[in-house]
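Loading example: each entry is read as two labelled lines plus one structure line.
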Amino acid sequence: MFSRREFLQFGAVAGLATSMSSGFTGNMTRALAQQKLTQDDLLKFDSKGQITLLHFTDVHAQLKPIYFRPPDTNIGVGAFEGIPPHLVGKEFLSHFGLQEGSPLAYAHTMDDYLNLAKTYGKLGGLDRTSTLVKSIRADRGDDKVLFLDGGDTWQGSYTSLKTNGQDMVDCMKLLKPDAMVGHWEFTFGAERVQEIIDDMGYAFLASNIVDTSWEEPVFESTAMFERGGVKVAVIGQAMPYTPIANPQWMFPEWSFGIRPEKLQENVDKARADGAEVVVLLSHDGFDVDQKLATVVSGIDVILTGHTHDSIPKVLEIDNTLVLSSGSHGKYLGRVDLEVSGGKVTGFSSGMIPVFSDVISPDPEMAAKIDEVRAPYEAECNRVIGRTEQMLYRRGNFNGTWDDVICQGLIEERDAEISLSPGFRWGTTVLPGQDITIDDLYNQTSMNYPNAYRLEFTGQQLKDILEDVCDNLFNKDPFYQQGGDMVRVGGMSYTCAPKEEIGNRISEMKMISTGEAIDASKSYVVAGWASVNEDVEGPPIYDLMEKYITEKKVIDLPQNETVRVIGY
Amino acid sequence: MNITRRQALVLSAGAAAFAVAGLNSTPSFASAEDTEKAIMAISGGKMPETGKVTLTAPEIAENGNTVPISVSVDSAMTEGDLVESVSIFAEGNPNPDVVTFNFTALSGAASATTRMRLAKTQNVIAVAKMADGSTYMDKKEVKVTIGGCGG
């Protein structure tokens, strides 16, 4: 557990950094801040017991350090209102006792993001993560550490798209994970998934995937390990709604779902097989797993991913510890367990932010990253434009990157309205920075990219918004899919998250004219990432490259598309 | 080739981006009252108790045309603790009466699995009738979604 002292130590650094920033250049401040924060500080940990679990999740193919602005809006409903992960900015800071402006404040929240980004620099980079993993393994002993990859590993960058995920597979192999689970992995198609699993040398787990014909397991559900003399079972959960949120035609024989009864069976079986500790490596999403902890018994630790939430330490829910380790390589989650008499008797936990300017890159991984990127490096760094505003994606209703994409869709496809999916992956570009091919593909890299142009009636638009909104704000997390609201261009609307499906969306209007959307009238709509097969249209990355190149400089007005009420 | 509900809808809509459910072309759907009437016919007029019977169904259907469901009843399947039948109802389908499984002591266990079509988001209900005339029920909402934007 992060002790109070460690928080204060991080905080003291911040105090210095921000107080200096008024009188000094950014570089001075940054140098000072980094001088104070050391790799040893980041690795400091109250080591405990026989087992160390390291959790790394949702890296979305980010091999290099990145900026990633956390959300400013993350509304929780029902029992999940006002608790993690539904706390942003200062509420998050006060809940976890973090100081404004501290390194941890920068890592976990969007509070004063731009200034702190300039102070503390980028986070992540698989070579930095590798340094941390190697140090912890050396410190604790290999035989005590389980390194677990929570999935969404292979998709999300230019090079992952061009290499069919091979760049990530080759780099992850060096980290020697003990097991992984999947979600966007499946969008490389069933055959490619099987091919990688056969080659990668560690377990790919899914308790919740069965074949559509016989409902028999497709993958191993459980992997057994011995660590520190203790028998540990790791059970995997794939993203339960992959065939709904992503194209089912890419893996037509596989059925997903939460399947809590199946999970309970697998937990019981693991216990019967002698497991003293049961770990669930999950891509369910934070709220789903908070509920799962209360309906499935016998799980000691849930390492959760998918919703990209980060928290500085575990939550204790019933008898289960739950840790959510963020995304994009920004963090390495750690849980130490003390086990005696077949039970967890003590623990400590923490979330290590991967400050890329503070942690020295692991040379072996750095060389591998250079190697896999080499054929594409020049193209990745090609500048296509510049931005005057901060471009980011996360947020329940909109992000500036999607504002740009929505505008690009309207202009390039000559549409009245545009829709951009509520993905939570995608990195941040700071104001004044160039936009490169890397940046563009960090928002758009996918295997079903075609930008459609179709007519929808006002009623159909309303139904779509209601449907997606219910995936986000259903009071029962088992009905949530884990993305954000579909982003809308050309049209404004009002959203009441706490209402029921059918009553959340109102006041749909064309922004250009202020005219109300007519339920029976047809509108020309452009969008991308349709889950249907054989979608016609240019790939979104080509469309957006053209748009940004033509615009040269991105500087869109403040987004006023969505009015949120009643929360 | 296996044409899924989504694909079928796409074909009919000329490549709709979201598989938009046919909300405007709905036949006359059953109401919750029709289902209740049917349940009362089994139970002899009183609401079945909860417990004993477990209905397993997905929270959100991957394909509304073929939704896998299972039922099982906690029973020794011997005289004195015998399940006579389990009936499945889909409250929001044009015809709510989906299937009735009949059991005998020779069945050994009262469990069954099938697939059903669900026209829209609705409650699926399983009603177990015991040999002594007592009835039990379990209910689960299954969402039939238009299209996902999760990420």
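Chain B touches chain A through 31 residues (CB under 8 Å).
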